[in-house]
């Protein structure tokens, strides 16, 4: 029911009142003001519904125009996908773009790998190189040792020479101690060399450095012990005792202990332990065989770059086929979009038309019910004869623009037919092309592998005997 029906009881009362007063008169030939008023109310209500329908119709017509533009755009895109470009040609073209780049890194890798193999043969090495992969982590221990020894030394010295002087002495000797230890470990690796002179050099460095480290730590510990005596005798610790410490500290090589008190003893062993750890860290910072680390790193770096380039080539080949597939998948999505949109537009417009027609029927029915009730009330109480038009069926004069509605419907039907035809013409072909691209994945993989094989063979041919005679001189460390 429409809002018009709310006036039903009012119409009945108005009919009783007018009928009792003789209105409308029997000679009246047109509806009276009461009926005309309800006619105006009904027309106004339908006008509001008609306005809403008109707005919906305009919105749908706008969407129809937009969809037509989209269809033209999609048809142009689909026309470029009429034929599936040869996948093999696409892949080979992408690979050929990178052939020079790939051969360059392959040559570099082959040279570095040949150098590594030759080095292993010359040095009778049958194992992988062993060295830290994270030098920050490896040498962080050196800084910890340096810090720890400086703190220990600072604690021992600060009691007698003051905190600042003790810390300075501790830091200087700790740095010297650790630095000598690291360098000793690095050069000690030459004991593993195939060259006899280098073997001797490694041992000489180790023995010489060991003597120096023992002497430095003995002097430092002796100096610490002498400061205890100087403190009790009120002597100038820094100026007067160091020369004596150097002299007495050297007696450790006579198997004498120049530091008699416990703090000096602890200080000596703290220094020796720190130096020992520093030697070990220096020794393990690179492979035990001098020069092996360098050629191994070069070979690994070259191999890593080769793998990166090959991944780039593989990705380019995959991208070429993937883009072709994505174009066709996009085409299918567009086809489905225009088809579903046209169907939805038709369903929406039919729904709006049904709603406005139902509303028109409803308002007409309610108007008729009100007018009939009004006239029956007049008949019930009128002392006179009712007008002739009371015997006619009351009809509310409202209508729709059927021509405009029919025109919109035809436009949508034509559009729906066009989208169905477009979908039928292209959908199967695009599905077949996508299936062909998917089935070509194995072919693509084979083409990429063959490309790498050919490129590497060409690189080897270009290098020739150079692969066998290349020589990387091992550097110290």
Characterization of the model:
- This protein is mostly helical and 477 residues long.
- It folds into two domains: 3-85 and 324-394 and 421-469, no CATH class; 132-285, no CATH class.
- The chain has helices at 8-20, 33-79, 87-96, 99-122, 135-161, 163-188, 196-233, 237-240, 242-249, 262-283, 292-381, 402-439, 441-463, 466-469.
- α3 (87-96) runs parallel beside α13 (441-463).
- The chain is elongated, with a radius of gyration of 51 Å.
- The two termini are 99 Å apart.
Q: What characteristics describe this protein?
A:
mainly alpha, 14 helices, 0% strand, elongated, disordered C terminus
Strand content: under 5%
Computed Rg: 51 Å
Class of secondary structure makeup: mainly alpha
Number of strands: 0
Reconstruct the topology from this structure.
Layout: H1 8-20, H2 33-79, H3 87-96, H4 99-122, H5 135-161, H6 163-188, H7 196-233, H8 237-240, H9 242-249, H10 262-283, H11 292-381, H12 402-439, H13 441-463, H14 466-469
Kindly summarize this structure in a few lines.
The chain is mainly alpha-helical and 477 residues long. Helix content is 78%, strand content 0%. It is elongated and about 155 Å long.
């Amino acid at each position: 029911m429409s809002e018009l029906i709310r006036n039903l009881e009012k119409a009945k009362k108005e009919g009783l009142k007018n009928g009792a007063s003789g209105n409308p008169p029997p000679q009246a030939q047109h509806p009276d003001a009461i009926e005309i008023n309800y006619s105006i109310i009904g027309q106004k209500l339908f006008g509001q519904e008609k306005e809403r329908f008109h707005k919906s119709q305009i919105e749908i017509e706008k969407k129809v125009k937009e969809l037509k533009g989209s269809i033209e755009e999609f048809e142009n895109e689909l026309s470029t996908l009429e034929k599936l470009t040869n996948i093999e040609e696409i892949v080979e073209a992408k690979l050929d773009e990178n052939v020079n780049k790939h051969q360059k890194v392959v040559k570099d890798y082959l040279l570095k790998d040949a150098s590594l193999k030759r080095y292993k043969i010359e040095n009778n090495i049958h194992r992988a190189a062993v060295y830290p992969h994270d030098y920050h982590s490896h040498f962080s221990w050196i800084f910890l040792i340096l810090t720890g020894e400086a703190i220990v030394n600072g604690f021992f010295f600060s009691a007698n020479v003051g905190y600042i002087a003790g810390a300075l002495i501790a830091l200087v000797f700790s740095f010297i101690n650790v630095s000598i230890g690291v360098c000793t470990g690095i050069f000690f690796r030459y004991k593993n060399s195939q060259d006899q002179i280098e073997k001797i050099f490694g041992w000489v460095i180790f023995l010489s450095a060991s003597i120096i480290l023992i002497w430095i730590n003995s002097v430092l510990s002796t100096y610490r012990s002498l400061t205890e005596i100087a403190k009790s005798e009120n002597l100038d610790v820094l100026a007067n005792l160091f020369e004596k410490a150097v002299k007495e500290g050297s007696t450790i090589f006579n198997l004498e202990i120049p530091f008699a008190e416990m703090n000096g003893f602890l200080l000596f062993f703290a220094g020796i332990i720190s130096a020992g750890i520093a030697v070990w860290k220096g020794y393990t910072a690179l492979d035990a065989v001098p020069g092996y680390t360098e050629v191994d790193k070069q070979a690994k770096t070259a191999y890593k770059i080769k793998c990166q380039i090959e991944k780039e080539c593989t990705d380019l080949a995959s991208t070429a086929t993937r883009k072709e597939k994505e174009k066709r998948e996009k085409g299918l999505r567009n086809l489905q979009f225009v088809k579903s949109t046209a169907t939805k537009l038709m369903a929406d417009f039919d729904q709006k038309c049904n709603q406005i027609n139902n509303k028109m029927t409803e308002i007409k029915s309610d108007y008729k019910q009100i007018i009939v009730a009004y006239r029956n009330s007049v008949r019930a109480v009128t002392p006179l004869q009712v007008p002739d038009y009371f015997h006619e069926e009351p009809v509310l004069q409202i209508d729709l623009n059927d021509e405009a509605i029919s025109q919109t419907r035809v436009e949508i039907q034509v559009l729906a037919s066009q989208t169905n035809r477009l979908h039928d013409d292209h959908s199967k072909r695009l599905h077949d092309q996508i299936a062909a691209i998917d089935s070509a994945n194995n072919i693509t993989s084979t083409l990429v592998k063959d490309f790498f094989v050919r490129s590497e063979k060409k690189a080897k041919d270009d290098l020739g005997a150079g692969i066998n005679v290349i020589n990387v001189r091992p550097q110290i460390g």
